[in-house]
Specification:
The chain is mainly α. 61% of the residues lie in helices and 5% in strands. α8 runs antiparallel to α9.
Length: 376
């Protein structure tokens, strides 16, 4: 029933609806999303308790979400956060299930804030927050209330940083770009801020970069200086290195007038993009995938270690085996002895046979070589 209603709304021509009706529809969708998140959290909690992922061939809930529901790892992590909400924050889950009290994002944010409150006070604190949300308190007011509750219920000697969420995640897109997200402690945030401010100053009046672009360039410069400083821990006795992948086309001085070479470059760049996209969603070796000007800038100062890789076409295996077997048979076939009185004016039969076999061997060798080149 839910799927039918969702498909009906998806096919509705929104351009024919007035703004007031669209606004009401968006509010209804947000309420539905909140109630659906509460349902998903309870379902996942019970599904995990019944060892559902193991029965379905997966080791954990996250792997089951990724492989069975075909969601991204980021979405799976959000689903697991809702599951933890159902397990550890029943008061917030009840407010979320009402649909209109708090949204999914607000409920998850409140759960992160109340995690540092001692267990004996947490349910009461969440009741206060949900009651305030029912009365119309916005996120700013809820944050102030939560901070005051945490301050009043803090332990006499809390461990430094124990009540703070911290973590950094890094992922790559199918284009090889990086996506950096994180929650920093105040000390770490202060140091990051100081470094970025120091390295992101505008380079004169002609510097048209935005603040975000200058911060990006400052982060890259900071990492470059750190790698060159020799202060990073060594791995297997060797200094830390940045690993990048560069296409052969970008490392060679190519002949711009060669149409065949240009076609090879275009085809290989497409394959390179496919490999780079696959590496963005798998474990990989941690290297960056560069091309064009970015690859040339890195390669000019890098220690280049040539590694040649290739793809094997399984369809060529049987053909190559048959050619090699025939070639081996010709190499090992004994010569046919000549009979009768030898004719000194003609080529001996044994020599003629060997010459024919050698010619066939050469032809087969050329065929094998051509097959290997065309299949590489």
């Amino acid at each position: 029933m839910l799927e039918s209603a969702a498909r009906f709304l998806a096919k509705t021509d929104a351009a024919e609806l007035p703004a007031e009706l669209l606004a009401e529809g968006l509010r209804a969708l947000e309420r539905t999303d909140a109630a659906g998140a509460a349902t998903r959290g309870r379902f996942l909690q019970v599904f995990d308790a019944q060892h559902g992922p193991v029965a379905d061939g997966q080791r954990a809930v996250r792997a089951w979400l990724v492989h069975s529901l075909r969601v991204t790892k980021g979405q799976a992590a959000e689903h697991q956060a809702v599951e933890r909400l159902a397990r550890n924050h029943p008061v917030l889950l009840a407010g979320l299930a009402e649909g209109w009290v708090v949204t999914k994002s607000v409920a998850l944010q409140l759960a992160r804030w109340t995690r540092a409150i001692p267990d004996e006070y947490r349910d009461e604190a969440e009741e206060i927050l949900i009651t305030a949300a029912r009365a119309g308190a916005d996120l700013r007011a809820l944050a102030a209330m939560c901070a005051e509750i945490r301050s009043r219920t803090a332990q006499p000697d809390p461990d430094d940083g124990q009540d703070l969420d911290r973590g950094v995640s890094f992922a790559t897109t199918i284009d090889g770009a990086g996506v950096l997200r994180g929650d920093l402690t105040p000390e770490c945030a202060a140091m990051v801020q100081a470094v970025l401010d120091a390295l992101s100053a505008p380079d004169g009046s002609e510097d048209l970069r935005t603040r975000r672009e200058r911060y990006h360039d400052a982060l890259g410069e900071a990492m470059k200086r750190l790698l060159a400083s020799g202060l990073l821990p060594k791995r297997a006795g060797q200094p830390a290195r940045a690993l990048v992948h560069i296409t052969f086309a970008d490392l060679c001085q190519l002949d711009a007038d060669s149409s065949l070479q240009d076609k090879w470059i275009r085809d290989y760049r497409a394959r390179w993009a496919a490999h780079r996209a696959a590496a963005s969603v798998s474990t990989g070796d941690g290297g960056a995938w560069l091309e064009g000007e970015a690859a040339r800038r890195v390669a000019c100062d890098a220690m280049i270690v040539p590694v040649v890789t290739g793809d094997i076409d399984p369809g060529a295996v049987e053909e190559l085996i048959a050619l090699c077997v025939r070639y081996h048979a010709l190499r090992t076939e004994p010569s046919t002895p000549s009979t009768g009185t030898p004719d000194t004016t003609a080529v001996p039969a044994g020599l003629a046979g060997r010459a024919a076999r050698q010619a066939e061997q050469a032809a087969l060798s050329a065929t094998v070589a051509e097959a290997l080149v065309s299949r590489s």
